[in-house]
Design goal:
The model has no long low-confidence stretch (mean pLDDT 85). The chain has five helices and no strands. 22% of the residues are buried.
Length: 138
């Protein structure tokens, strides 16, 4: 009887450890999906601003947007900092802010072709960032 209880306890501990691992992975996956949505929202605000909307996205500080706070504020680093792809997010994230700024400035200057060029560049950079997000999930 004692051996059976020990086996049951061992199995319970193993299942518990597996559940914890899966919960950590699911949390990271959820945070990545939220980051993708935030990226879409940021791009929407850029599109809205260059279409004459009243919204002006916060282009200036990539550390202060929601993704920047996740990435630089500790939670992102704690969740994914050891993954090689994590460091690959920084450059395209900064580029998206810079390109958004360029698109808005071009719109203010009435330079439609530069606005279109910047928006196309923003989409290309966004796609690169999405691929890196996907690497973090895999």
């Amino acid at each position: 009887m004692g051996g059976n209880a020990a086996n049951q306890m061992s199995l319970l501990i193993k299942i518990s450890a597996e559940m914890e691992t899966q919960m950590v992975k699911n949390r990271l996956n959820t945070l990545i999906e939220v980051s993708k949505l935030e990226q879409i929202a940021f791009k929407f605000n850029v599109y809205s601003s260059v279409a004459g909307g009243v919204t002006k996205p916060n282009f200036n500080d990539p550390h202060q947007c929601r993704f920047g706070r996740w990435y630089y504020g500790g939670e992102g680093k704690a969740q994914a900092g050891n993954h090689p792809a994590y460091r690959e997010l920084e450059v395209p994230h900064h580029e998206i802010h810079q390109i958004g700024r360029q698109a808005f400035s071009a719109w203010q200057a009435g330079k439609k072709s530069q606005v279109i060029e910047a928006l196309n560049q923003m989409e290309t950079t966004s796609l690169k960032m999405s691929h890196v997000f996907d690497q973090l999930i895999d």
